[in-house]
């Protein structure tokens, strides 16, 4: 039983969860029902908010195998609870449900684990998921994913498609024939409908969900309470505010749902053709597709309704929805290991590894290329929410909660206010009982004190600042889909930048070429488009080795390929559909030079002109293309010159990768030095290679040959040098960030040396700083993993370690505050492979490398996300700025992700900038800081408002009095709401400063500020309250009291007495009430001014004209009715007449209060940080952030940074606390 009670699902994945089984208990349900009735429905609300309590209160524990309800808890830091009901899927209705009939009918089933014999597989699948002879499968749905009970692993597991555990061989051998109708029907039952269903909830559903928010329930409680106390006006104001808030919230939530629905609905239902086992083609709706269906890709293209692997033909696809790149990508059929020269039958198919052969859901197929008589076919591997697009939509529908100290502290602060309210509640009850007050009045007044202490207007007040910030961001072209993140952006202290298209211009320009002849480099050449080179192998390689295609007559493809092809000025022609249909095999794409470049007659004796020549026609046909693979870092083509017997193989890619596949005798000796010279100057270098293929390789054989058979024994031909210019604003923006103590990191897919060079050019790495390259090697042949440390500048200068000057070892400097980590004069650089090895084998080193890692090159999309997580693990607040291309995961994971692309991929990013430049980063941080400070100001002000009012009411309760309804209304509406909504209007300060705003409410200076103001306000209120009683004219007020000696007093009193024929039931009118009302009214305005902070994060408050006008107007109005009473106003506000002398005294109390409050607040601001720790005990505190603590430790570590030319090894098999021991070898 114990083992059954708690299991883990999705182990090791991002959405890993613990799962517990429960069965419904009737007696528990009866008790809960009774509790709901007794609590007036409040218990039901509580159980609605807490799924864990709901299940535990109504169910009993059971074995997961037989349970009716499952309780799920995430294993991340949030530990969130969810519950789901177990459902039963019955297979009896299907004739395929009995194993015998299935084994006869079905031939190509695929279960979670692939079993080679199809008949066995079907039996296995049924037995795995069903428990009884009646073929019932138990499952539950969580976050749009179905989890089925799996008997093999004795746990729930989600149903996988053909994307896991299937070899490339079996894709061709077992799945390429298609499914029978029976098998299709069975799979449809298991996998369900192929759609990414984003249901737009009805307004009613959204309304109920929004209204059942704890804050709105509290507001409803407050409104009911005030209505019973006849305090209708403010109740109405709160109702109106709540309605506005709910309506705007509903509008924005529904708008996002509609946007998401529209985004996924584009491919929701289309008609598709599928191949069945007997080779018949059936037309079905895309919603009926299941993994294993063989889909026919139409000639004129389509939007993919699922993820599918291409097994026949070629497709040109626009993947901008997924990657942000609008560049068309060529997809080729998956290599068939059984016909390839080198059989790699064991290789498992994986959509990520084989993405050049996979068509992803939501991407647009623009064109297809095919063999005559053979259709372009793809096997469906994933459907619905399991597809790549489905996973993106799920991550938007069910985002991870943002954990931010401000919000955690806000809840703590509210709890403190609730505790204060509790004290007032008890005090009121005791005081009322002692004074023999009626029970009804006691209940209302004691509950009223709670609504005073915890202000119902708080959520609206807190949201105001964020809404204003969002509006200001929109004005400067930054759009935000997650407003809560604006505050978090105010805390960013590290920003990661993608390089291409973000720091540098999007495109590359061809700087020149450097050819190789007889294994020696010739001098660089700028002009490639000339008669001398037109028939050279070098230009032939540039003309053919690319993935360009014509779409509606326009040449399109990878920008690098486009620049390269444009530089030679050749013409590309593709076969039309009619031409292709006339031939047995695929018609090649043909490239040829323009006529003006071809010489009139055949030139003699030029060694390079080995190609077959015809004076009139010179064309090259591209026979086979092996697309660029980021894993291999190269692409290649097989081409044939018109009329030539032998074919040519051309290859281009990363210089190191290409040189390794060439004959060593063709690679120049100084290759490494020349390459380094170019990369250090920031050029992007591409190498070219070529070889003649054997004449026995026929056209048909080439179509089935593996790329490994082609890509070897090549002749090295030279280098193409591309230039990637920095964007004009990049250096200035990075300098601003450095001045503001914000670290900058580069994350790129480009080569290491190019990235380091760009980092130096843009000022990310200063000229005097050292760059240490960490080259990590995985364990191999029994040897442990190791890291070789190189100093980038010493790579070429120093041939052996002894030549290194000890002075060159970087100095460690850390600023006093430990924040200025840019002062440290060394930076780590590494590539994606090294980063992965370090994450796996050197976990102890990861935090140290995160502290100074500045350049991360050749990073894959998932590695970018891992880097963001590693930086967050050492307590950095991380921003990420990318152009949307392959940065989706990182943009989503960062605290503040800013996409510079307005494509659909930016749906994953909280912020999108209209202008594709990084100048949006400082703007966002400035606005974030302003919004954060505004939140602090509003929170402090609302806390003071509730405490001031709470204390006013408590003082008055002591004499069985209270504030009048219109007094409450004047304070709550005229003062508080006006002040709150105008004090949030301060715009951001015009530049970023080095100082950072506090991250939480519970910090020494902030708490001291609030507490000191509370003490001051309580002190002056008490002074007024008790001092008025000491006045010679004081008496317990009654309707005929006459303390006024002014000439107008007689009129005032007579008019007042006429209206006061019946007694004042609530004892509102008295001298204490009038005194407390005036003093507290001024106090609200005093703390509003004291808390309205300006520089260095916001514009000074005198520039916030609405706020200044509101405060001055309120000051004059209150001053006027205090010094020159107006009978009608006094009557409405239930103020009594007091002598003029006491009015002046109150004014003096208020002025002294204002002076003390503002002086104390200014002092806390100026000296709080330095004096408070000293006052509290002089001890030096350990920094809270891990990275600051680590910086302190590394200051005294003699072994850090690693010395040049040393190696760090992971000790084999010695693991202590999960970390590897490390030894350093010099």
UniProtKB/TrEMBL annotation:
Annotated GO biological process: intracellular calcium ion homeostasis
Domain named Cation-transporting P-type ATPase N-terminal: residues: 176-226
Zinc recorded as keyword: no
Database matches in Gene3D superfamilies: Calcium-transporting ATPase, cytoplasmic domain N, Calcium-transporting ATPase, cytoplasmic transduction domain A, Calcium-transporting ATPase, transmembrane domain, HAD superfamily/HAD-like
Keyword list, A-Z: ATP-binding, Endosome, Magnesium, Membrane, Metal-binding, Nucleotide-binding, Phosphoprotein, Translocase, Transmembrane, Transmembrane helix
Membrane topology category: Multi-pass membrane protein
Main location: membrane
Reactions catalysed: putrescine(out) + ATP + H2O = putrescine(in) + ADP + phosphate + H(+)
Pfam families: Cation_ATPase, Cation_ATPase_N, E1-E2_ATPase, P5-ATPase
Spans through the membrane: 27-49, 232-253, 410-430, 450-469, 936-960, 966-989, 1001-1028, 1074-1092, 1104-1128, 1140-1160
SUPFAM superfamilies membership: Calcium ATPase, transduction domain A (SSF81653), Calcium ATPase, transmembrane domain M (SSF81665), HAD-like (SSF56784), Metal cation-transporting ATPase, ATP-binding domain N (SSF81660)
Residue span(s) of domain P-type ATPase A: 272-396
Record's protein name: Polyamine-transporting ATPase 13A3
Function comment: ATP-driven pump involved in endocytosis-dependent polyamine transport. Uses ATP as an energy source to transfer polyamine precursor putrescine from the endosomal compartment to the cytosol.
EC number: 7.6.2.16
GO molecular function: ABC-type putrescine transporter activity; ATP binding; ATP hydrolysis activity; ATPase-coupled monoatomic cation transmembrane transporter activity; metal ion binding; P-type ion transporter activity
One cellular-component annotation, GO: recycling endosome membrane
Family to which this protein belongs: Belongs to the cation transport ATPase (P-type) (TC 3.A.3) family. Type V subfamily.
Enzyme class: translocase
Classification via InterPro entries: ATPase_P-typ_cation-transptr_N (IPR004014), ATPase_P-typ_cyto_dom_N (IPR023299), ATPase_P-typ_P_site (IPR018303), ATPase_P-typ_TM_dom_sf (IPR023298), ATPase_P-typ_transduc_dom_A_sf (IPR008250), ATPase_P-type_domA (IPR059000), HAD-like_sf (IPR036412), HAD_sf (IPR023214)
Residues covered by the P5B-type ATPase N-terminal domain: 13-150
Subcellular location(s) of the protein: Early endosome membrane; Late endosome membrane; Recycling endosome membrane
Source species: Pan paniscus
Keyword Membrane belongs to the record: yes
């Amino acid at each position: 039983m114990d083992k059954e009670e708690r299991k883990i699902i999705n182990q090791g994945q991002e959405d890993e969860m613990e799962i517990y089984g429960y069965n419904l208990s009737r007696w528990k349900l009866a008790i809960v029902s009774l509790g709901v009735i007794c609590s007036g429905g409040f218990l039901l609300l509580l159980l609605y908010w807490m799924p864990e309590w709901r299940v535990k209160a109504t169910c009993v524990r059971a074995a997961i195998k037989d349970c009716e309800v499952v309780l799920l808890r995430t294993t991340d830091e949030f530990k969130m609870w969810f519950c789901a009901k177990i459902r039963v899927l019955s297979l009896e209705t299907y004739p395929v449900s009995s194993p015998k009939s299935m084994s006869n009918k079905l031939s190509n089933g695929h279960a979670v684990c692939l079993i080679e014999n199809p008949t066995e597989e079907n039996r296995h699948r049924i037995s795995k998921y069903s428990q009884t002879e009646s073929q019932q499968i138990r499952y539950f749905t969580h976050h749009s994913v179905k989890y089925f009970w799996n008997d093999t692993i004795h746990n729930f597991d989600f149903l996988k498609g053909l994307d896991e555990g299937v070899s490339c061989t079996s894709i061709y051998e077992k799945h390429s024939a298609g499914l029978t109708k029976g098998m299709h029907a069975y799979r449809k039952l298991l996998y369900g409908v192929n759609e990414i269903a984003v249901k737009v909830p009805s307004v009613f559903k959204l309304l109920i969900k929004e209204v059942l928010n704890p804050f709105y329930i509290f507001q409803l409680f407050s409104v009911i309470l005030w209505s019973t106390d006849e305090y209708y006006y403010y109740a109405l104001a709160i109702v109106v505010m709540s309605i506005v808030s709910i309506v705007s919230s509903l509008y924005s939530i529904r708008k996002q749902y509609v946007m998401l629905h529209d985004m996924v609905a584009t491919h929701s239902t289309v008609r598709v053709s599928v191949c069945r086992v007997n080779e018949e083609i059936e037309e079905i709706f895309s919603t009926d597709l299941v993994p294993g269906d063989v889909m026919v890709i139409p000639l004129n293209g389509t939007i993919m309704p699922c993820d599918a692997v291409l097994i026949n033909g070629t497709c040109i696809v626009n993947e901008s929805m997924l990657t942000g790149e609008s560049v068309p990508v060529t997809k080729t059929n998956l290599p068939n290991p059984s016909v390839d020269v080198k059989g790699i039958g064991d290789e498992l198919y994986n959509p990520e590894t084989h993405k050049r052969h996979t068509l992803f859901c939501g991407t647009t197929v623009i064109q297809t290329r095919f063999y005559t008589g053979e259709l372009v076919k793809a096997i469906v591997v994933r459907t619905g929410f399991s597809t790549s697009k489905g996973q993106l939509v799920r991550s938007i529908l069910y985002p991870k909660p943002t954990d931010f100290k401000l919000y955690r502290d806000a809840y703590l602060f509210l709890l403190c206010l609730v505790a204060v309210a509790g004290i007032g509640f008890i005090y009121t009850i005791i005081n009322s009982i002692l004074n023999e007050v009626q029970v009804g009045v006691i209940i209302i007044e004691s509950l009223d004190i709670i609504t005073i202490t915890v202000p119902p207007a708080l959520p609206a007040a807190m949201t105001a600042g964020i809404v204003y910030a969002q509006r200001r961001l929109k004005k400067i072209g930054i759009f935000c889909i997650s407003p809560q993140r604006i505050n978090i952006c105010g805390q960013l202290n590290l920003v990661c930048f993608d390089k291409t298209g973000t720091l540098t211009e999007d495109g590359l320009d061809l700087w020149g070429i450097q050819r190789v002849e007889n294994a020696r480099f010739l001098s660089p050449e700028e002009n490639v488009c000339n008669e001398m080179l037109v028939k050279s192998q070098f230009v032939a390689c540039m003309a053919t080795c690319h993935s360009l295609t014509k779409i509606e007559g326009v040449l399109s493809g990878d920008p690098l390929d486009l620049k390269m092809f444009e530089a030679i000025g050749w013409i590309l022609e593709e076969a039309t559909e009619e031409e292709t249909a006339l031939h047995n095999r695929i018609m090649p794409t043909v490239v040829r030079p323009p006529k003006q470049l071809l010489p009139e007659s055949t030139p003699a004796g030029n060694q390079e002109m080995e190609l077959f020549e015809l004076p009139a026609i010179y064309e090259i046909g591209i026979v086979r293309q092996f697309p660029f693979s980021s894993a291999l870092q190269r692409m290649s083509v097989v081409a044939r010159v018109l009329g030539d017997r032998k074919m040519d193989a051309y290859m281009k890619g990363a210089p190191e990768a290409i040189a390794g596949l060439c004959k060593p005798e063709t690679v120049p000796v100084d290759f490494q030095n020349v390459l380094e010279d170019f990369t250090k100057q920031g050029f992007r270098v591409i190498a070219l290679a070529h070889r003649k293929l054997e004449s026995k390789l026929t056209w048909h054989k080439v179509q089935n040959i593996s790329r490994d058979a082609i890509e070897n024994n090549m002749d090295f031909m030279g280098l193409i040098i591309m230039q990637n210019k920095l964007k004009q604003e990049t250096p200035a923006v990075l300098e601003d960030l450095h001045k503001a103590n914000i670290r900058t990191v580069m994350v790129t897919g480009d080569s290491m040396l190019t990235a380091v060079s760009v980092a130096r050019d843009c000022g990310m790495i200063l000229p005097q700083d050292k760059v240490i390259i960490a080259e990590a090697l995985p364990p191999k042949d029994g040897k442990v993993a190791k890291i070789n440390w190189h100093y980038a500048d010493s790579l070429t200068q120093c041939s052996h370690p002894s030549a290194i000057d000890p002075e060159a070892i970087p100095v460690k400097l850390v600023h006093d505050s430990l924040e200025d980590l840019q002062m440290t004069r060394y930076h780590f650089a590494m590539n994606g492979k090294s980063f992965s090895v370090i994450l796996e084998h050197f976990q102890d080193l990861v935090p140290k490398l995160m502290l100074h890692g500045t350049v991360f090159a050749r990073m894959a999309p998932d590695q970018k996300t891992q880097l963001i997580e590693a930086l967050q693990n050492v307590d950095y607040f991380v921003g990420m700025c990318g152009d949307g291309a392959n940065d989706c995961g990182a943009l989503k994971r960062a605290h503040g992700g800013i996409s510079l692309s307005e494509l659909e991929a930016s749906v994953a990013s909280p912020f999108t900038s209209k202008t594709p430049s990084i100048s949006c980063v400082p703007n966002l941080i400035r606005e974030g800081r302003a919004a954060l400070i505004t939140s602090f100001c509003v929170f402090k002000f609302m806390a003071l408002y509730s405490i001031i009012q709470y204390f006013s009411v408590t003082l008055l309760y002591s004499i069985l009095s209270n504030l009048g309804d219109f007094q409450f209304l004047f304070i709550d509406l005229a003062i508080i709401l006006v002040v709150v909504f105008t004090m949030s209007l301060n715009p951001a300060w015009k530049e970023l400063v080095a100082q950072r705003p506090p991250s939480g409410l519970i910090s020494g200076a902030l708490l001291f500020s609030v507490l000191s103001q509370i003490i001051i306000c309580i002190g002056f209120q008490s002074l007024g309250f008790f001092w008025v009683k000491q006045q010679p004219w004081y008496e317990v007020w009654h309707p005929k009291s006459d303390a006024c000696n002014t000439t107008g007093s007689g009129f005032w009193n007579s008019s007042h007495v006429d209206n006061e024929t019946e007694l004042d039931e609530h004892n509102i009118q008295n001298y204490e009430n009038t005194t407390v009302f005036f003093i507290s009214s001024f106090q609200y305005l005093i703390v509003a001014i004291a808390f309205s902070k300006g520089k260095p994060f916001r514009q000074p408050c005198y520039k916030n004209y609405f706020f200044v006008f509101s405060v001055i107007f309120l000051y004059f109005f209150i001053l006027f009715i205090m010094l020159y009473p107006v009978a009608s106003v006094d009557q409405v506000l239930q103020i009594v007449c007091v002598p003029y002398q006491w009015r002046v005294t109150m004014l003096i109390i208020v002025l002294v209060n204002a002076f003390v409050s503002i002086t104390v607040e200014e002092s806390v601001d100026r000296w709080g940080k330095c004096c408070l720790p000293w006052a509290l005990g002089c001890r030096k505190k350990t920094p809270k952030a891990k990275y600051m603590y680590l910086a302190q430790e590394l200051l005294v570590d003699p072994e850090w940074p690693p010395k040049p030319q040393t190696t760090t090894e992971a000790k084999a098999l010695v693991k202590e606390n999960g970390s590897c021991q490390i030894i350093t070898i010099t």
